[in-house]
Amino acid sequence: MQKHIKKGLVGATLVGLTSFGFGQSQQAPIQERPGLQPQIDLQGSGIGTLDIGRKSNFGSNGNGTGGQINISDSALSLGFSERLYRGGIGSFTLGALALDKANSGQDFGLFLHQALVDYQTASFETYLGRTDNPSVQLVQFPTLRGDDLVEFTYLLNPFSNGQNLEEHRYGNVAAATFNKGLRQFVNVHAQSLIDSDNLEGPNSSQLNSYGASYQYMALPTNEPLDRFVSYGAGFEHRAVPRSFGGASEALYAGGVVNVLPSLTHRVDLRLLVTSTFGNSTKGFDTLGDTYRADSTTVAASLRQLNSPFGLPGSALSLTAGYKTFGRVSDANEFGLALTGAKRLGEGFDAVAQIAYTHRSDALAAVAGGHGDNLAFQVGLSFSFGSVTNQSVGPRRTPLNTRFRQIPN
To answer: With respect to CATH, is domain 38-401 assigned 2.40.160.10?
Structure first.
């Protein structure tokens, strides 16, 4: 009888302990509600071109003559978002894109360009993770790929070794953005720029860049008709080690202006000016030195959009850039790209581009010895976005982080 009582007490004790979490894995402090389904955003952009006259993207080491089938910059992103208890929106985005090395099929050619968690209200947003560098968001140029003419169209990453051009566009960012009426935006951020040149040691991921920016943006529905579509300016402090020339400061400013506002036959002008200073690099031994040395860059594009009512649209743009280096003699470069696109279907375009870059001798010596590069590309591009369980409208969706050749 006593044995049965003891067994009963032991069993009751075990049940009690189990109910308090001692006999199994600890329960989450806040129980999730699996019945609440988030909004799901799927975004993709695929581009395939026949390239004649080059072996890799503009600005990368090893440019030369030849041809290839190019699938780089094709990307796929997935985003999840939901309405929060006090009215804000929480979201998570994950995405990858194809690199130049994906063309050979011999190396792992995917790059994680989006992996961020975002919280936003009507007047405030904060996000943390891998995403576009804040300076990249100021002006986007209408070249076929985001990394075409990258030396002129972006504030370059002084920690990059030049083998992966996406390191100039993306980084690990912690940012807070304040806005007034969803027109004026002030962004304060810290970054861990990708250190492929190992300036801070192998596999370093420490914070190495801090900055702030201001941007004005017109209503998306008014973009074809407003004179000033967007404009802004920013400052960035990049903590380059002293052994590589010391800290590099950067100022940048730019915007988009409608030269000819129109719903059907629009012409816009895009301009970006960047200036870096404070680094003492006075010569080029590697491609990475060209990203750290003090420089002044001007990039501009003129784009014509034809979208006649009821007929397929088309676009034609001319993008040009020039860069000079303040501390390095005989160091300058120039780039030009003529880009065209013809709409064949919703988000599906026939595309073509002819581009030319010239580097002075000092730059050509560390860029594979190629001072002049001429390339012709022709192919197809497809961009799409799909929303499941649509219930909220986050600003930083996968679709908003990519651009299309012709706005839909």
So the answer is: yes
